[in-house]
Structures are given as C-alpha cells and as structure tokens.
Specification:
The chain contains twelve helices and eight strands. With 293 residues, it is of the alpha/beta class. The N terminus is likely disordered. It binds 3-methyl-2-oxobutanoic acid. 3-methyl-2-oxobutanoic acid binds next to loops.
C-alpha cells in the first residue's frame, strides 16, 4: 500500500514536471499538454479514439488545434487540395517545409506530423534522413510520415535511430498511383498485415492505414501494438484521419466514399463573396459603421 502511494506521488510529480516542460498555451477546451508518441500509446491502451486531420496553414491549424484534434498532418495531399494538382507527386520538400513551418507555429497541443513528399522516401536512405531532419530542425513539427511498410523497414529504422518519430503509411499509397493505375481499395490481407508488423518492428510509433476493407483494418490493428489510424479503413482502428478540405466541404472535386462532410465551407465562402459583391454594387458597403469620421 505504502509502495503504491509512493508510486502515485512520483507519477503525479512526473505529470507536474511534464505539464511544465511540454505544455503549450491553453486552448478552447483548456487542455495544455502536448500530444506525444507516449500520449498516443496511452490512448490506444485506454481505448480512447485518436483524431487526426490535415492542415497546411496557420489559421486552419490554430482552429483544429483549439478543437483538440490530437494529430495535425501536413500531408502531401496539399499538392491536390491547395496547389490544384491531380496527384500528390508534384509537391516539393521546400514547399512542405514552408507549410509545415506555419502549422508547427500554430499548434500548441496537437502533435504535428509532416509527410515526406515524393521522392524523399524513395531515393537513398540518407536523403530521407536529411529531409526528416529538416522537418525537426526548420519547423516546430514533431514527426514524419512515410509511405510503405516492409520494403521501407530499413529506412524507418534509420530515421527513428536519428531521433525522428516515424508514422508508417500502409494500404493505398497515393505516391504509387501510376504503378497501381489509380487509387484502389487494397485487399491483400497478408501483405498488408506484414507491412504494418514490419513498420512497427522498425520503430514506427503509429501506422496509418488507407483504403482497406474494415475487416483488414481490424486485423492489422489486432496484429500490432502501436496505434493505428484509418482513412477508409473502417471503425475497428485506434483513430481516424481525413483531409480537412474534404471534411469541411471546401473541395469541388470527387469525394471518396469514406469521407463524411461535416460542413459546407465552399458554399459559405461563395455566398459571402456574392453578398459582398452585391453590397458594393448596391452602395451598402462600406456603411457609416465601417467609415472613419
Ligand atoms: O497527405 C495526406 O493527406 C494523407 C492522407 C492519407 C491523410 O496522407
């Protein structure tokens, strides 16, 4: 009993020390503690669902962080949703750093993960190491994400050994779009499980699973002990991620089946712009309240 209460005291002292060293500013819900790899492990252990969204700029990252989203991803999807390209392939490392720097500066509580864009995760391992080191050195972000599983094990191990947390991305790998001939549901159960296990063994702190049947999402989650985050991988995973522009309805293109739209931002912006234009042409803007005496 005495031993337990000593342990409890030590743990609460440790918590106090952590809240001093790891805290950011209070956000809308009053949370102050930075989400870390340890937090995510604990969430998996406790069965607490993990939320993750993409962010590419300061105001969006600030809003998502203040909504207590656990992980912000500076995804290479920015090539498609921000830059207007057809695939994720064109975005460069310099452009990723530019956006990651804004997101890292805005996030007080969320862990911020940055995608290694094509071909930083495909060429020699030293190049991936340098790109990953840039993320930690030049932005205030905390981890990188790398597409691939078993065939990326050596690369993941090298990056983690350098002190950089890695989230592995298995299942549909958008950077493979031309090899796969499009974006397709992935169904090779044994291979997908082997990818996730290899990534975990190599030191990945988390496995993102894209576009697999729900039962494969469940099977992968049962086979690894690190948290799993799904996008189109069903409900039996440890957390969910969506591209924010899809989730808020700020996208004019095709929406995959796995997206749920929680807002209609594109229409709100269009309506506001039409109201603004109308107010100018009718002479209603600016009014007295927007003018100086
Ligand atoms: O770049 C991205 O947005 C992604 C998604 C799978 C979340 O990797």
């Amino acid at each position: 009993m005495a031993r337990r209460s000593l342990l409890a005291t030590l743990l609460s002292q440790n918590d106090a020390a952590m809240s001093h060293t790891e805290k950011g500013n209070h956000n809308a819900r009053g949370s102050t503690r930075r989400v870390t790899t340890k937090t995510l492990q604990r969430m998996r252990r406790d069965g607490t669902a993990i939320s993750m969204l993409t962010a590419y700029d300061y105001p969006t990252a600030e809003a998502l962080d203040q909504a207590d989203v656990d992980i912000l991803l500076v995804g290479d999807s920015l090539a498609m949703v921000v830059q207007g390209h057809e695939t994720t392939l064109p975005v460069t490392m310099d452009q990723m750093i530019y956006h990651a720097e804004m997101v890292g500066r805005a996030a007080r509580r969320a862990m911020v993960v940055v995608d290694l864009p094509f071909p930083e995760g495909q060429l020699e391992i030293n190049r991936s190491l340098e790109a990953s080191a840039r993320v930690l050195k030049e932005t205030q972000c905390h981890a990188v994400k790398l597409e691939g599983g078993a065939e990326q094990a050596n690369r993941i191990e090298a990056i983690v050994t350098a002190g950089i947390p890695v989230m592995a991305h298995v299942g549909l790998r958008p950077q493979n779009v031309h090899v796969d001939g499009g974006y397709r549901i992935q169904r090779q159960t044994d291979e997908l499980i082997a990818d996730a296990i290899a990534a975990e063994k190599a030191g990945a702190f988390c496995v993102l699973i894209e576009c697999v049947p729900a039962e494969i999402g469940r099977a992968i989650t049962q086979e690894v002990s690190v948290p799993t985050i799904g996008i189109g991988a069903g409900p039996h995973v440890c957390g969910q991620v969506l591209v924010t522009h899809d989730m808020i309805g700020f996208n004019s293109g095709y929406l995959p089946k796995f997206v749920r739209q929680f807002a209609d931002v594109r229409n709100s912006i269009q309506q506001a712009a039409m109201d603004y234009r109308e107010a100018i042409s009718s002479g209603k803007f600016p009014g007295k309240e927007e003018s100086f005496e």
